[in-house]
């Protein structure tokens, strides 16, 4: 198949078709199959972006590994960030569609992270959910005053958590 003169969108489509059909295919084999340079294939593959919604999980709670796995199974792009001290840097780097904050962050108050996001002209719009092992009105009030969009207490029901995340993400797209 000769791809000379083909635009990038069509070339990308052909590359993806080959990768889907043969997940172990090499860039060299793709280039040979499409009659283009290996460098062009490499450049096009590097330009691909993950279009899944990205969830940034911040914290070290005992349930966060299970939550990460559950959301990956739902086809979300999930990134785990353990520390809180450079949370804004993590948000800047990862550009998430949603931040899940674990209130058990050791090095910073997770509600302060939410306040920092809300006061930032670059990140104020990113929805924030709090995952907490602490319930009660005092914690809920503190969370909502800091600007969180939702607050979920442990034990987490996975079906409810997925539904809440979906609702918050839908609301953010409006």
UniProtKB/TrEMBL annotation:
Which biological process terms from the Gene Ontology are attached to this UniProt entry? regulation of DNA-templated transcription
- One Pfam family name is HTH_24
Write down the PROSITE patterns for this protein, in alphabetical order. RESPONSE_REGULATORY
Q: Which domain of life is it from?
A: Archaea
SMART domains from the UniProt entry: REC
Could you tell me which residue ranges the Response regulatory domain spans? Answer: 53-169
Task: Spell out which residues are annotated as carrying 4-aspartylphosphate.
Answer: 102
Q: Which is an annotated GO molecular function term of this record?
A: transcription cis-regulatory region binding
Keywords for this entry?
A: DNA-binding, Phosphoprotein, Transcription, Transcription regulation, Two-component regulatory system
Name this polypeptide is given: Response regulator receiver
């Amino acid at each position: 198949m000769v791809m000379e003169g083909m635009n990038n969108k069509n070339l990308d489509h052909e590359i993806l078709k080959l990768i889907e059909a043969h997940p172990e295919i090499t860039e060299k084999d793709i280039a040979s199959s499409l009659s283009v340079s290996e460098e062009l294939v490499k450049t096009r593959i590097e330009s691909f972006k993950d279009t899944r919604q990205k969830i940034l999980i911040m914290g070290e709670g005992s349930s966060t590994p299970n939550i990460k796995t559950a959301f990956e199974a739902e086809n979300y792009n999930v990134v785990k960030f353990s520390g809180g001290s450079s949370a804004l840097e993590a948000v800047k780097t990862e550009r998430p569609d949603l931040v899940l904050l674990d209130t058990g962050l050791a090095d910073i108050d997770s509600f302060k992270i939410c306040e920092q996001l809300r006061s930032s002209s670059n990140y104020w719009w990113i929805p924030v959910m709090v995952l907490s092992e602490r319930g009660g009105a005092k914690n809920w009030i503190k969370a909502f005053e800091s600007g969180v969009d939702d607050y979920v207490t442990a034990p987490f029901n996975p079906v409810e958590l997925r539904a809440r995340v979906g609702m918050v993400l839908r609301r953010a797209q409006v």
